[in-house]
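Appendix B: complex inputs.
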Amino acid sequence: MIITMSSGATKKDITRVKEKIKELGYESKIFKGVKKTVIHVIGATDRERITQSIEQLPAVERLTPILSPFKMGSREFHPENTIVSVNGKTIGGEEIVIMAGPCSVESEDIVLEIAKAVKEAGAKILRGGAFKPRSSPYSFQGMGEKGLKILAEAREQTGLSIITEVVSEVDVPLVAKYADILQIGARNMQNYQLLKTVGRFNKPVLLKRGISATIEEWLMSAEYIQSEGNHDVILCERGIRTFETYTRYTLDISTVPVIKELSHLPIIVDPSHPAGNSKYVPALARAAIAAGADGILMEVHTQPSQALSDGKQSVKPIVFKELMHDLKNIAKVVGRKI
Amino acid sequence: MIITMSSGATKKDITRVKEKIKELGYESKIFKGVKKTVIHVIGATDRERITQSIEQLPAVERLTPILSPFKMGSREFHPENTIVSVNGKTIGGEEIVIMAGPCSVESEDIVLEIAKAVKEAGAKILRGGAFKPRSSPYSFQGMGEKGLKILAEAREQTGLSIITEVVSEVDVPLVAKYADILQIGARNMQNYQLLKTVGRFNKPVLLKRGISATIEEWLMSAEYIQSEGNHDVILCERGIRTFETYTRYTLDISTVPVIKELSHLPIIVDPSHPAGNSKYVPALARAAIAAGADGILMEVHTQPSQALSDGKQSVKPIVFKELMHDLKNIAKVVGRKI
Amino acid sequence: MIITMSSGATKKDITRVKEKIKELGYESKIFKGVKKTVIHVIGATDRERITQSIEQLPAVERLTPILSPFKMGSREFHPENTIVSVNGKTIGGEEIVIMAGPCSVESEDIVLEIAKAVKEAGAKILRGGAFKPRSSPYSFQGMGEKGLKILAEAREQTGLSIITEVVSEVDVPLVAKYADILQIGARNMQNYQLLKTVGRFNKPVLLKRGISATIEEWLMSAEYIQSEGNHDVILCERGIRTFETYTRYTLDISTVPVIKELSHLPIIVDPSHPAGNSKYVPALARAAIAAGADGILMEVHTQPSQALSDGKQSVKPIVFKELMHDLKNIAKVVGRKI
Amino acid sequence: MIITMSSGATKKDITRVKEKIKELGYESKIFKGVKKTVIHVIGATDRERITQSIEQLPAVERLTPILSPFKMGSREFHPENTIVSVNGKTIGGEEIVIMAGPCSVESEDIVLEIAKAVKEAGAKILRGGAFKPRSSPYSFQGMGEKGLKILAEAREQTGLSIITEVVSEVDVPLVAKYADILQIGARNMQNYQLLKTVGRFNKPVLLKRGISATIEEWLMSAEYIQSEGNHDVILCERGIRTFETYTRYTLDISTVPVIKELSHLPIIVDPSHPAGNSKYVPALARAAIAAGADGILMEVHTQPSQALSDGKQSVKPIVFKELMHDLKNIAKVVGRKI
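Resulting structure:
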């Protein structure tokens, strides 16, 4: 059950509602929007009793039962799209945002070279991993803070915002110091301690879907972040695991219209990981924008064959540039712009 | 191993090669193209010996080893796209073909009404099932020949070509009498007797991917049709089965660029079955064209709630018309036309 | 809705009920058991009206609503286990039946050699394919009728009953002439014409689960056979397709207790196809019996490396003999015998 | 590449080898067994050069190339079974160990009641969650340290060892203070920071398979623990996610023989989570022991309907007791004992 307070509700009005909920035996969570405050009654089963007790309190505008297990992420709760702001750019609004860069940060020279190339082609955000979750403990694990500094330097020189992954709750303060968007990878989609930790920071979070997470579980993981107070969650579809082996994962393109219906959160698509091969990336990126995605997160590298990770699925800047041209035109067809 | 004969090869030249292959202990299959004839040496393991024996025979242009398990469907074997002709329309060329209509043929009035609506919006081919494979023996199983006659009548009145499913090898002659394209459904993708039977008819075949068939198995099933002499095979991606339940199946959009790389056969996309819900169909159709598909096969119904099957995933003509507008514009972006 | 007639119901009583159902606007199917006749009202939605009209007719014992989509296969409908008889042996009763033999029939000598070996170790039924559904049209497709004759000869010499696959509705009369049990393979689980055809023959049918069929779809396919009048259906779990590649398929061992709860039909397990490797077969066979399966269908070959198909997953007779020893002991633990 | 030192190798001999490896440009990891020390050369590509440089150094017994991506967990590296000791009981040896208890620790009374019941039936280890990873942030998240104290009290009173889950790297020292075995849940199988952390503690770790992890990825995650120095890793199969919905997950029983072939680590089976329903649990537990598992981890509750989590899949003590009887008999058949 969600209680929407009227726009003029005072602190006292809100406290009064909160106490009433407690009196009825339920917990509550406050969600402060730009215009209105809403209060989530957790586990509310006896709707009639709650309605009777609360609807006549001062400044209570309306009560909405939320049937889906995800509450704050639900469109029932928040009908308009959430628009996330990152250094003046917006994600989830009319504009489609392209995030591009190397899989992992390997050296300052290469990162700068790639950053300039993707910026020139129209990307607004630079991606790059400093902490890399790798299947093998014997593989390159990322440069750590040194990598974060390189990303910050690239931001300085190009004006691009930066997104980078955080893999440990302990590292969140460090990564948040440098990054504009905190990325939670697919392997950590249900690392709830990490989700709660980023939920307490004031930085947008990009939450990748786990390789076998249902859409509902994914939205429940977003809820872990939102329920700690951080409402700037961006969802990122990156392919699910199926029996098919010609591609690395199976891009579940249907999540785009499904998420748009169920949730107000922005959804972007990573075409690189499901493809697993740079040859297929442009087709998947075009499909994502045509399906209605709010952005693309993809791997671009100037020397893919030299990359320390995921080189095979990284496209070259020349391919990225041509792709951006197509994406701009498709964006227009679906009433958006890049 | 594939032997390409030069364009001036005579019947005698071809027979000579065929006999040589037999002498070496292998079977062969002849594939006659518009310009050149190619000969497939089945199970050829001793490449060197075959090459030495055959490359100097008259009119032998070149020998190509085909490493993939599918031979006639492989792009190694036939580098240019196969273009299938259906009553003057082409599938697999520059033009993108839209096939639309009801899931099943239910009455002449409804079929004609739908046929006129989809034609007006720009569809070129009318779909509709007269023989329906249903999970339950207690569900409506289709109108049979009466349904085929209704489709033929709709063709007569609208000029649309018709595609309809055949579910039994015994019914192939009957269905082929009425249909312009024979459809093999997902459940029958590995019904090899049915594949061989349609392979002996002179009608294009649309082969849907099984719900858990790998791309390789799908191309091997196409090979069953091609190896009987029918080269007009159109592949149709219609979603695979995964753990996700918000959609009926998971549209594997990546198959579009993968098939385009591996094979010369046209590939079209059915956005209705994976969606399972008309709300998601337009997004998937747009994604398919953006990804490079050669066409769309989708369910349109004037009264979805009254449909005897799959009404939930059928869009109304008004939605179809708007979608066609978008598809035409996306086709332009990817260098195609509708 | 299922109507159970009392044990003394006459033909006239049954006809009266049938006509009443027709009058109410529904179709019906008669299912004659050893003691009682039951009548299935198809698509019955208005339960109250049906009950009122029918419960007072003579010889009507009781009306049972069947909520599951499968009716005749449901345990609600038929609480006791179905016991299938094959030449005096029973499947689904106290005894556990072992079916073993080569993947495909390749020569009389080899089949006889294998038949004698599996008989000696305790198998009761000989398996072997004469019509082989193969992914590639260029692979060995089976010996056809010649293979069936070899199986019949092996039956003659050993007393083993024989089970063999039928892949085409056209071949059913031929295969039924030789086989004691007709096998429907995984690829044809939803080849409804084939299911209906074997449903009209008086031979037990072993129905393998499709590689991505849900348990419900599998029981619905059994329903196609049962609803044509053939009630001797044996289910066979043979592994489903998942992302895991160390094994050929993933044996879904849970189907054994699930089917036992939902249905009265016998369920046996094929440990060879999911394993894909003879090393893993004994463990899976033991697990199947421990889980409560009614039998095992497995591949045994005297010279696995020479087999024309599936040699890798065929165990040698010496391994089979040791396994039979373990299976007998596990059968005792679960209150059964081999 | 793995270098096995002879049993009399001195510290100096080992250091010499280590330095040689460094000189050749590779990193190394030391693995000290009871009798022999082995050294892992990481990423060794130039085998010939390494062999020539190292095989003649003092106390080098032999060099073994390990082709699998997992090294320390590979049977090539360590042919005998690893036997993990927990308070005098062994896991991975002749004896099969049963771990049972409630899903989550809810109150001292209930935990003690269950502990006594499972002990009486023959369980050796008590399971129970104090930190619960839940899909919803609004669900019961566990009692935390209070729950750990209750488990310790149950150990005190019954003599059972205790296994409990740790969900955060930060909590490892706290959980390790109370638990005898640290459990890593399926959701955290690729939470590498957590794996590394438990790898530095001197407590056995039970590592559950992720719901869509391949066997290789699972063994690679074990490698994260082993490569930090903790060799007491117990693998636990708990079902994978597939399309089938009659069960909560699909128990992949084949992992038991596959892991036994690939690795020396003990493997146990959790029949409760894949079943998702207590009705199916005994069949799966019997199957696991028949397949060769080293133990069972299952949920038992005295009042399943009152459990705060997973009550539906918890069996009652009476069922558990009967099951133990069967398991003991099946253990004998496969040459083991409980």
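The interface with chain A takes residues 241-243, 245 of chain C (CB under 8 Å).
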